[in-house]
Predict the structure.
Amino acid sequence: MTTEVGTGRPRDSRIDAAVLGAAREVLSEVGYAGLTLTEVAARAGTSVPALRRRWPGKVHLVHHVLFPSEVTMPPRNPNATLDDEIVAIIDGCAVIFGDCATRQAVIGLIGDLGPQADVQQQLTDRLRDVVWPDVTQRLRDAAARDGIDAPDDPTMVIEMAFGGTLAAVLMRGGDGLDDAWRASMRRVLRAVLAAGD
Protein backbone atom coordinates (compact mmCIF):
# COMPACT_ATOMS: atom_id res chain seq x y z
CA MET A 1 0.00 0.00 0.00
CA THR A 2 1.22 3.50 -0.79
CA THR A 3 -0.11 6.86 0.37
CA GLU A 4 -1.97 9.16 -1.97
CA VAL A 5 -0.06 12.42 -2.30
CA GLY A 6 -1.73 15.35 -0.58
CA THR A 7 -4.66 13.40 0.88
CA GLY A 8 -3.14 11.25 3.60
CA ARG A 9 -5.39 8.40 2.56
CA PRO A 10 -3.92 4.99 1.87
CA ARG A 11 -3.53 4.24 -1.81
CA ASP A 12 -3.82 0.62 -2.79
CA SER A 13 -1.00 -0.24 -5.19
CA ARG A 14 -3.03 -3.25 -6.33
CA ILE A 15 -5.59 -0.88 -7.83
CA ASP A 16 -2.81 1.02 -9.60
CA ALA A 17 -1.51 -2.20 -11.12
CA ALA A 18 -5.00 -3.35 -12.12
CA VAL A 19 -5.80 -0.02 -13.79
CA LEU A 20 -2.50 0.13 -15.68
CA GLY A 21 -2.93 -3.46 -16.82
CA ALA A 22 -6.51 -2.84 -17.92
CA ALA A 23 -5.50 0.32 -19.78
CA ARG A 24 -2.80 -1.59 -21.65
CA GLU A 25 -5.36 -4.23 -22.65
CA VAL A 26 -7.78 -1.60 -23.94
CA LEU A 27 -5.01 0.15 -25.87
CA SER A 28 -4.09 -3.16 -27.51
CA GLU A 29 -7.69 -3.80 -28.51
CA VAL A 30 -9.07 -0.41 -29.57
CA GLY A 31 -6.08 1.95 -29.63
CA TYR A 32 -5.69 5.34 -28.03
CA ALA A 33 -8.76 6.92 -29.63
CA GLY A 34 -11.05 4.13 -28.42
CA LEU A 35 -9.81 4.06 -24.84
CA THR A 36 -12.22 5.44 -22.22
CA LEU A 37 -11.75 5.76 -18.49
CA THR A 38 -15.12 4.06 -18.01
CA GLU A 39 -13.98 0.93 -19.82
CA VAL A 40 -10.63 0.88 -18.04
CA ALA A 41 -12.25 1.29 -14.62
CA ALA A 42 -14.75 -1.49 -15.33
CA ARG A 43 -12.01 -3.92 -16.36
CA ALA A 44 -9.90 -3.00 -13.36
CA GLY A 45 -12.80 -3.54 -10.96
CA THR A 46 -12.78 0.03 -9.71
CA SER A 47 -14.65 3.29 -10.36
CA VAL A 48 -13.91 6.26 -12.58
CA PRO A 49 -13.66 8.62 -9.54
CA ALA A 50 -11.09 6.28 -7.96
CA LEU A 51 -9.19 6.19 -11.25
CA ARG A 52 -9.29 9.98 -11.58
CA ARG A 53 -7.84 10.39 -8.09
CA ARG A 54 -4.73 8.72 -9.43
CA TRP A 55 -4.74 10.00 -13.01
CA PRO A 56 -6.78 13.19 -13.68
CA GLY A 57 -7.43 12.31 -17.31
CA LYS A 58 -6.84 9.96 -20.19
CA VAL A 59 -3.51 11.50 -21.19
CA HIS A 60 -2.13 11.12 -17.66
CA LEU A 61 -3.15 7.48 -17.50
CA VAL A 62 -1.79 6.60 -20.93
CA HIS A 63 1.47 8.41 -20.17
CA HIS A 64 1.99 6.13 -17.17
CA VAL A 65 1.09 3.08 -19.25
CA LEU A 66 3.56 4.00 -21.99
CA PHE A 67 6.40 5.05 -19.72
CA PRO A 68 6.29 2.67 -16.72
CA SER A 69 9.01 3.01 -14.13
CA GLU A 70 10.28 -0.53 -14.72
CA VAL A 71 11.15 0.47 -18.32
CA THR A 72 12.27 4.07 -17.80
CA MET A 73 14.16 3.27 -14.56
CA PRO A 74 15.25 -0.39 -14.56
CA PRO A 75 17.25 -1.77 -11.61
CA ARG A 76 20.78 -0.44 -11.46
CA ASN A 77 23.84 -2.54 -12.11
CA PRO A 78 26.74 -1.10 -10.07
CA ASN A 79 29.21 -2.62 -12.52
CA ALA A 80 27.53 -1.42 -15.71
CA THR A 81 29.77 0.01 -18.40
CA LEU A 82 28.78 2.97 -20.53
CA ASP A 83 27.88 0.58 -23.35
CA ASP A 84 25.70 -1.40 -20.92
CA GLU A 85 23.76 1.74 -20.01
CA ILE A 86 23.39 2.77 -23.64
CA VAL A 87 22.06 -0.68 -24.52
CA ALA A 88 19.57 -0.40 -21.63
CA ILE A 89 18.32 2.93 -23.00
CA ILE A 90 17.95 1.52 -26.51
CA ASP A 91 16.18 -1.59 -25.21
CA GLY A 92 13.78 0.55 -23.17
CA CYS A 93 12.88 2.66 -26.20
CA ALA A 94 12.45 -0.49 -28.29
CA VAL A 95 10.07 -1.93 -25.68
CA ILE A 96 7.96 1.23 -25.82
CA PHE A 97 7.80 1.48 -29.61
CA GLY A 98 8.10 -2.16 -30.59
CA ASP A 99 4.42 -2.92 -29.99
CA CYS A 100 1.99 -1.60 -32.62
CA ALA A 101 -0.73 -0.63 -30.13
CA THR A 102 1.77 1.16 -27.93
CA ARG A 103 3.22 2.97 -30.91
CA GLN A 104 -0.23 4.18 -31.97
CA ALA A 105 -0.92 5.26 -28.41
CA VAL A 106 2.25 7.36 -28.35
CA ILE A 107 1.21 9.12 -31.54
CA GLY A 108 -2.31 9.68 -30.18
CA LEU A 109 -0.93 10.97 -26.89
CA ILE A 110 1.34 13.44 -28.67
CA GLY A 111 -1.63 14.66 -30.72
CA ASP A 112 -3.80 15.20 -27.65
CA LEU A 113 -1.07 17.00 -25.76
CA GLY A 114 -0.57 19.57 -28.52
CA PRO A 115 -3.33 21.98 -27.39
CA GLN A 116 -2.82 21.23 -23.67
CA ALA A 117 0.41 22.99 -22.84
CA ASP A 118 -0.15 22.80 -19.07
CA VAL A 119 -0.78 19.05 -19.11
CA GLN A 120 2.14 18.51 -21.45
CA GLN A 121 4.34 20.37 -18.97
CA GLN A 122 3.08 18.19 -16.10
CA LEU A 123 3.94 15.01 -17.97
CA THR A 124 7.26 16.37 -19.19
CA ASP A 125 8.09 17.27 -15.60
CA ARG A 126 7.29 13.71 -14.54
CA LEU A 127 10.07 12.45 -16.80
CA ARG A 128 12.48 15.30 -16.12
CA ASP A 129 12.05 15.23 -12.33
CA VAL A 130 12.39 11.47 -11.94
CA VAL A 131 13.75 9.72 -15.04
CA TRP A 132 16.24 12.32 -16.27
CA PRO A 133 18.21 12.57 -12.96
CA ASP A 134 18.34 8.76 -12.78
CA VAL A 135 19.62 8.44 -16.36
CA THR A 136 22.09 11.27 -15.81
CA GLN A 137 23.57 9.60 -12.75
CA ARG A 138 23.70 6.19 -14.43
CA LEU A 139 25.57 7.56 -17.45
CA ARG A 140 27.96 9.64 -15.35
CA ASP A 141 28.74 6.73 -13.04
CA ALA A 142 29.30 4.37 -15.96
CA ALA A 143 31.47 6.92 -17.75
CA ALA A 144 33.57 7.34 -14.60
CA ARG A 145 34.02 3.56 -14.35
CA ASP A 146 35.13 3.56 -17.99
CA GLY A 147 37.50 6.49 -17.43
CA ILE A 148 35.51 8.79 -19.73
CA ASP A 149 34.29 12.34 -19.10
CA ALA A 150 30.53 12.43 -19.65
CA PRO A 151 29.05 15.52 -21.34
CA ASP A 152 27.37 18.18 -19.21
CA ASP A 153 23.91 16.97 -20.22
CA PRO A 154 24.04 13.22 -20.87
CA THR A 155 20.24 13.01 -20.95
CA MET A 156 20.52 14.21 -24.53
CA VAL A 157 21.32 10.57 -25.23
CA ILE A 158 17.89 9.40 -24.12
CA GLU A 159 16.22 12.14 -26.17
CA MET A 160 18.13 11.00 -29.25
CA ALA A 161 17.31 7.36 -28.55
CA PHE A 162 13.61 8.14 -28.05
CA GLY A 163 13.34 10.25 -31.20
CA GLY A 164 15.48 7.90 -33.24
CA THR A 165 13.44 4.86 -32.22
CA LEU A 166 10.14 6.58 -33.04
CA ALA A 167 11.51 7.64 -36.44
CA ALA A 168 12.80 4.14 -37.11
CA VAL A 169 9.47 2.42 -36.48
CA LEU A 170 7.62 5.01 -38.56
CA MET A 171 9.96 4.43 -41.50
CA ARG A 172 10.88 0.75 -41.03
CA GLY A 173 7.93 -0.66 -39.11
CA GLY A 174 8.08 -2.48 -35.80
CA ASP A 175 10.27 -5.21 -37.26
CA GLY A 176 12.90 -2.61 -38.12
CA LEU A 177 14.19 -2.53 -34.55
CA ASP A 178 16.38 -5.56 -35.17
CA ASP A 179 19.89 -6.36 -33.96
CA ALA A 180 21.54 -4.45 -36.80
CA TRP A 181 19.50 -1.32 -36.04
CA ARG A 182 20.27 -1.57 -32.33
CA ALA A 183 23.99 -1.93 -33.02
CA SER A 184 23.92 1.14 -35.26
CA MET A 185 22.01 3.15 -32.66
CA ARG A 186 24.50 2.09 -29.99
CA ARG A 187 27.39 3.38 -32.11
CA VAL A 188 25.60 6.69 -32.70
CA LEU A 189 24.82 7.25 -29.02
CA ARG A 190 28.31 6.19 -27.98
CA ALA A 191 29.77 8.72 -30.42
CA VAL A 192 27.57 11.46 -28.94
CA LEU A 193 28.85 10.70 -25.46
CA ALA A 194 32.45 10.45 -26.68
CA ALA A 195 32.12 13.91 -28.21
CA GLY A 196 31.82 15.26 -24.69
CA ASP A 197 35.16 13.81 -23.62
User: Anything to note?
Assistant: The CA atoms of residues 144 and 168 lie 31 Å apart. Residues 2-58 form a domain with the Arc Repressor Mutant, subunit A fold (CATH 1.10.10.60).
